Amino acid sequence: MHLSQTTPAFVSLPGADEIFTVAAGDGAVLPVYVLRAESPGPALLLGHANGLAAGSYGPWLRDLARDVQVFAFDARGNGGSTWPAGPLERVFAVERFADDLLRVMEAVRARLAGGRLYYLGHSLGAASGLDLAIAHRLPELAAVMLIEPPVFPPPGTSAHAVAERIQPLLIEGARRRRADWPSVEAFAERLKSGKSPFARFAPEMLEAHCRATLKPKPGGGFTLCCPPEIEAQVFAAHHRGNAWSRLDQVEIALDLVGADPTSVEFDWIAAAIPEMAGRIKRARLTQLAGVNHLMIQEDPKRLLALVRRWLGYA
Predict the structure, then answer these.
(1) Among 150, 170, 286, 308, which one has the highest count of C-beta atoms within 10 angstroms of its own C-beta?
(2) CA dist., res. 230 & res. 175, Å (int)
(3) Structure confidence at residue 287 as a pLDDT band (50, 70, 90)
(4) Strand ranges (DSSP E) for 155-225?
(5) Are strands 29-35 and 43-47 parallel, antiparallel or unpaired?
(6) pLDDT tens profile 50-75
(7) What is the pTM of this model?
(8) C-alpha span between 276 and 273 (Å, rounded)
(9) pLDDT surpasses 90 at 160
(10) What is the C-alpha separation between 290 and 182, in angstroms, rounded?
(11) At residue 170, does pLDDT exceed 90?
């Protein structure tokens, strides 16, 4: 594991108390942001969703950091990360994200010198944590919460048909996403319009997300930190994944959080997660009415209360 204090060229979570980087085995470099707690408490590591970045959770993480030392990192292909050249299918394979997460966890644990570390994974970050749990590679953690891991349900499962219909739409939508923008404000205005899931974001979370996922272009303007072809590739990798067949190999206790089960037109994971939880020996499932897949950005106060309870705070 290689650590560096070098500041990345782009920072998705400005104002962090500390930034360091972790190098992956293939040369990818992942920025890790530290928000120190106002009072002593446990530490939490966040793994973010595909197409987002650590900074997409910034205001929410700062609220959490009143009691908890927060670590959050930009996954490869997102935020301020860098990644090697090569076929996208290899550079952004699901196992790469799991290996990266393990390296980041080990780096964070080394800094805690034996202190308690909780892991909170959202979407892509949840899938990576689950992959490590399936392979019995997770380091010792105080607890693990996974919000909507995109574990694709195979034929014969109750949610297969809706997942098979929605996931190709997500892949194609990501592939067609506009990459270049004249300003952060123009990007925010576009995301607020129509039926986009981003239109449901709390205002402070939308602003943070836009600033975390657009980086300046040489000569002016901005471009997406996560290129559309990479976001699409990650969605496709989960579509092809086979983690479902190995869920019964998970030995640790997991808290699973799902979105509103009536929102399946937009979120197939909400339909799949009860059956997913049933295949994991020690899973505790919570499903939240009124929110969709990007629930932390949609209802940060409600999710803050949920996570604080999980961490042992009233």
Answers:
(1) 150
(2) 8
(3) very high
(4) 180-181, 214-216, 222-224
(5) unpaired
(6) 999 999 999 999 999 999 999 999 99
(7) 0.96
(8) 5
(9) yes
(10) 34
(11) yes
Structure tokens at 213: 């996922």
Tokens of 122: 């959202």
Q: Are 166 and 263 in contact (CB under 8 A)?
A: no
Helix axis angle for 124-134 and 94-112, nearest 10°, is 80
Q: Strand 254-258 vs strand 143-147: parallel, antiparallel, or unpaired? A: parallel
Six token digits for residue 160:
């297969």
Half-sphere exposure of 197 (CA within 13 A, CB side): 21
Compute the chain's Rg from CA coordinates. Answer: 18
Give me the torsion for CA of 233, 236, 237, 241, rounded to 10°: 180
What does the alpha-carbon distance between residue 206 and residue 215 come to, in Å, rounded to a whole number? 16
Report which residue type is found at 1: M
Determine which helix (DSSP H) or strand (DSSP E) holds 107, and give its type and residue range. Answer: helix 94-112
User: Cα separation of 269 and 60, whole Å?
Assistant: 23
pLDDT band at 3 (very low <50, low <70, confident <90, very high): low
Q: At what angle do helices 203-213 and 184-192 cross, to 10 degrees?
A: 130
Strand 222-224 and strand 214-216: the pairing is antiparallel
* Strand, coil or helix: 294: coil
Domains of the chain plus CATH, in order, are 2-310 (3.40.50.1820)
What value does the mean pLDDT take over residues 212-221?
A: 96
High-pLDDT (> 90) share of the chain, %: 91
Residues 33, 65 contacting (CB under 8 angstroms): no
Q: In this structure, which amino acid lies at residue 278?
A: G
Nearest 10 degrees: Cα torsion 222, 76, 297, 105:
-140
Structure tokens at 85: 């050249």
> Which one, of 11, 29, 6, lies nearest residue 214 by Cα?
11
What pLDDT digit, counting tens, does each position of 81-119 carry? 999 999 999 999 999 999 999 999 999 999 998 789 999
